[in-house]
From TrEMBL:
The lineage of its organism: Eukaryota, Fungi, Dikarya, Ascomycota, Pezizomycotina. Transmembrane segments: none annotated. One of its GO terms (molecular function) is hydrolase activity. It comes from the Eukaryota. Residues 1-28 form the signal peptide. Keywords: Hydrolase, Signal. InterPro entries: GH (IPR017853). This is Glycoside hydrolase family 5 protein.
Length: 425
C-alpha cells in the first residue's frame, strides 16, 4: 500500500476543496479501477496487468440468488475462494429477476417468497430458514438483490473482483438448445427485457466497488425449438446487431465496467471477430468504432468443455476459436483483445485433474497464454437444478455442504499452482 500513499493523499487534499473532483477521479485504492484494455491485456489504474484467476458462483437458477447460502455464510464462501489466491468470481444472474422487479413496481421479491416459489412451501420455508441461520446478518425480509449486494460487499472487503454475468433470461439451470433461452427472440429471450436487465444491473452495480466487468450473455446457442428463428437469425450478423445493443445498454448505464462478449455455439468460438472476417450473411465486419467512446472496454470470452486425448489439437482449437486475439504478432489477427476463459471444468476427484488430458491441457494453456479464467464451479450443490432439490455438483470445488474442498489433491496439486502462474496483480 505504501507506494500508493502519495497519490491517495493528493486525492484527499484536492477532495477537500472540490468533492466533485474526488468523485470523478480514478480509484486510488483497490480495485484500482476503472479497468481498461490495452491490446491483449487488461490494465488497472496503476498500469498493472489484471488477469482473472477465479471461479463461477452461480445465482441464475430458479431461486435467483447466489447458491450455497443455506450451508455457509457469504463471508465463509468468499474466504474459501480468497484462500486459494483467486482474485475474482463470475457471479451469474437471471434477467427474470429484473423483469419481476419491474412487474412489482420497482420492488424486489423477498428471498422467502423466492424460495417458496422455487422449492415449494415446506422445503422453501425450511431452506430459507437455513439461509438466515447460516447468515445472521440477513434480515428476515431480505430480497434477492440484497443478497447479491451482500456478496458484492464481502467481495470488496476481501478484494475479490466481480465479473457479473447474465446467464439466462429465465431463472433456471443452463443450458440446452431447446430451453427457450438460446438466442435473441427465443421464447423467453426478449431482447428488450435483456437490454433493460443489463442496464439495470450495470446501474445497480455502481454501488459495488468490486464490480469491474459484465458479461453480456452466457452461451448463445442455436434455438433448436424454433426452426424459423434459427434459420432467420442464428448467425454472426444478428449476433453483432444484438451485441452492440447489449454493450450499449451496459455502457450507457455504467461507463466504468469492462464488457465481455461471448461467441456462438455455447460460446466456443469468436473467430470472425478476431480475424475481422465477414459477419455472415452480411459482408460487413467487426468495427471497434461501433463502440465509440468505449473501445478500450471490450474483452472476449470463451468456454471449453471437451474430451480429448491430444493436447496439441486442443491447443490449436482454442487458438483458432479465439485465443489468437491475444497474438497481435499473428498476421491473421485483425482485432486484438484480451481473452477470458470464463468456463471450463471437470469432475472433482483425486485423479481427473492430473490424468485427464483436457484438464491438464487447459491448465497448461492458460498458464502459457497468461489468460484470464474462471472455473466452473465453486458450488458443491444447488438449491435446485432441473427439478432436483439440493442437487449434488460433482464438478464443484467445494463439497455438498460447501464446507471444504472436494478434491484437496487438485487444489494443492493443480489449482493453486495455476492460480500462482496466472493471477495478476
Ligand atoms: C424436499 O426436501 C426433501 C429433503 O429435505 C427431499 O427429500 C424432497 O424430495 C424435497 N421435495 C421436493 C418436492 O423436491
Ligand atoms: C418484514 O415484513 C413484514 C411485513 O411487511 C413486517 O411486518 C416485518 O416487520 C418485517 N420484518 C423485518 C425484520 O423487517
Ligand atoms: C419463433 O421465433 C419467432 C421470432 O422471435 C417468433 O415470432 C415465433 O413466434 C417463434 N415461433 C415459435 C413456434 O415459438
Ligand atoms: C419481459 O418482462 C415483462 C415484465 O416487465 C414480463 O411480463 C415479460 O414476460 C418478459 N418477457 C419475456 C419474454 O420473458
Ligand atoms: C495430435 O494433434 C496434432 C494436431 O492436430 C497432430 O499433428 C498429432 O499427430 C496428434 N497426435 C496424435 C498422437 O494423434
Ligand atoms: C508461486 O510461484 C513461485 C515461483 O514463481 C513460488 O516461489 C511460490 O512458492 C509459489 N507459491 C505457491 C503458493 O505455489
Amino acid at each position: 500500500m505504501a507506494r500508493r500513499s502519495l497519490g491517495a493523499s493528493l486525492l484527499s487534499l484536492l477532495a477537500v476543496g472540490n468533492s466533485l473532483f474526488f468523485q470523478t477521479s480514478v480509484a486510488a485504492s483497490w480495485p484500482y479501477g476503472p479497468l481498461v484494455t490495452e491490446g491483449r491485456d487488461i490494465k488497472n489504474t496503476e498500469g498493472e496487468d489484471v488477469v482473472y484467476a477465479g471461479v463461477n458462483w452461480p445465482g441464475a437458477a430458479d431461486v435467483m440468488i447466489p447458491e450455497g447460502l443455506q450451508y455457509q455464510s457469504v463471508e465463509y464462501i468468499v474466504s474459501q475462494i480468497k484462500s486459494l489466491g483467486m482474485n475474482s468470481i463470475r457471479l451469474t444472474y437471471a434477467i427474470e429477476m429484473i423483469d419481476q422487479i419491474y412487474e412489482n413496481d420497482g420492488e424486489d421479491v423477498p428471498i422467502q417468497t423466492a424460495f417458496i416459489e422455487a422449492l415449494g412451501e415446506t422445503n422453501g420455508t425450511k431452506v430459507y430458514n437455513q439461509v438466515l441461520a447460516a447468515n445472521p446478518s440477513f434480515g428476515a425480509n431480505i430480497t434477492r438483490l440484497e443478497v447479491f449486494d451482500a456478496v458484492a460487499a464481502e467481495c470488496a472487503a476481501q478484494e475479490i473482483l466481480i465479473n457479473l454475468d447474465n446467464h439466462m433470461s429465465l431463472g433456471a439451470w443452463c443450458c440446452n438448445t431447446e430451453d427457450g433461452n438460446s438466442w435473441f427472440g427465443d421464447t423467453y429471450f426478449s431482447v428488450a427485457n435483456w437490454t433493460r436487465g443489463l442496464g439495470y444491473m450495470a446501474e445497480h452495480g455502481k454501488s459495488w466497488p468490486a464490480l469491474v466487468s459484465m458479461s453480456l450473455r452466457n452461451e448463445l446457442r442455436e434455438p433448436d425449438n424454433n426452426a424459423t428463428l434459427a434459420a432467420a437469425s442464428y448467425n454472426w450478423q444478428d449476433w453483432y446487431k444484438y451485441i452492440k445493443q447489449g454493450a450499449g445498454a451496459v455502457n450507457a448505464a455504467n461507463s466504468d465496467v469492462l464488457i465481455l462478449l461471448s461467441g456462438l455455439s455455447f460460446d466456443t468460438f469468436v473467430t470472425p471477430v478476431v480475424r475481422g472476417t465477414a459477419l455472415t450473411p452480411s459482408t460487413s465486419t467487426f468495427q471497434l468504432s461501433d463502440f465509440a467512446g468505449y473501445e478500450d472496454k471490450l474483452v472476449l470470452e470463451l468456454h471449453t468443455y471437451a474430451s480429448t486425448t491430444n493436447c496439441t489439437s486442443l491447443e490449436i482449437s482454442l487458438y483458432n476459436s479465439g485465443f489468437q486475439a491475444m497474438h497481435p504478432e499473428d498476421p491473421q489477427t485483425v482485432n486484438v483483445f484480451p481473452i477470458a476463459l470464463t468456463e471450463f471444468g471437470f469432475i472433482q476427484d483425486a485423479t481427473q485433474w492430473k490424468d485427464n488430458v483436457y484438464a491438464t491441457c487447459v491448465a497448461s494453456y492458460l498458464a502459457q497464454e497468461k489468460a484470464s479464467w474462471m472455473q466452473w464451479v465453486i458450488a458443491g450443490s444447488y438449491y435446485i437444478r432441473t427439478g432436483v432439490q439440493d442437487s449434488e455438483e460433482t464438478w464443484g470445488l467445494l463439497t455438498h455442504d460447501w464446507s471444504t474442498w472436494r478434491s484437496p489433491e487438485y487444489v494443492e496439486g493443480g489449482l493453486v499452482p495455476l492460480i500462482n502462474k496466472t493471477a495478476s496483480p
